[in-house]
Amino acid sequence: MHQHTAIPKLPPVYPFFEQQITRRDYTVFREFQNGVLEPCCSYDGVKIYIVSTLPELLTSLKLLQLSIKKHKVNYVGFDTEKEVFIEENAKGNCSTELNTNKRAIKKLALIQFATEDTCVLIRIPLVFKNIQEATQLYVFPTEFHDFLANEKVSKVGVSASWDSHALRSQYKLLVRGVVNLDRIAKSLGHEATSLKSLCNRYSVGIQPSDVRNKQWFNKELSKQSILYAAKDAIAGYRLFRSMKNQVDQKGLLLPVSRKRR
């Protein structure tokens, strides 16, 4: 039997948008800035980092920003992973109602960002739990909000709007600058718009797995799970690079999804 991590219970009312982080709270977060983060593995020249704590989150954001600056781009590959749980009298983001007392709930377990040489896998429930334990706060650091809400850095992926909606509904995290690769594919006249189909068409050197991973809340992620998640975000980054060239050549506009507060 697989050992699962405890999923933290979220507060009924989030202070993310309704309440600004105070000066004292901001000082608390500054104490975590010197986190050390080493890659767990790599894939096709891309270093992969696992993020489970607040210090690691802050460090991972710096790594992403350094890579963006180094390669002179304004986008990152973006994806999330969910796991389905059956709960009684559940409320929230439900995929299927099984009966009057039980529902299947898709709980967001992982956020993936990828650049040319860096891929960050954020175990968001563990990070949120670490923040609660370390600071007694129900807020993510300003740096994380700023990164997600920065429209100047596009977050690109297949059906990326769904991922941004899940972050908003489950963690009240606002994501701006979302670009759906499937919508770009349609604007270019492609009928098949799945991640696998697009990877085959554009030869990005990645073949996404057909086997769905369902163990994102395990205490430790297997290397197979890590590569599964990382490849989706890396593929999104590389696909956008290739598709953007076609969009520019044809004089089309990129379909960008903008979320309002």
TrEMBL record:
It is found in: Nucleus. Residues 73-248 form the 3'-5' exonuclease domain. Pfam families: DNA_pol_A_exo1 (PF01612). InterPro entries: 3'-5'_exonuclease_dom, 3-5_Exonuclease_domain, RNaseH-like_sf, RNaseH_sf. One of its GO terms (cellular component) is nucleus. Keywords: Exonuclease, Hydrolase, Magnesium, Metal-binding, Nuclease, Nucleus. GO terms for biological process: nucleobase-containing compound metabolic process. GO terms for molecular function: 3'-5' exonuclease activity; metal ion binding; nucleic acid binding. Its main location: nucleus. SMART domains: 35EXOc. This is 3'-5' exonuclease.
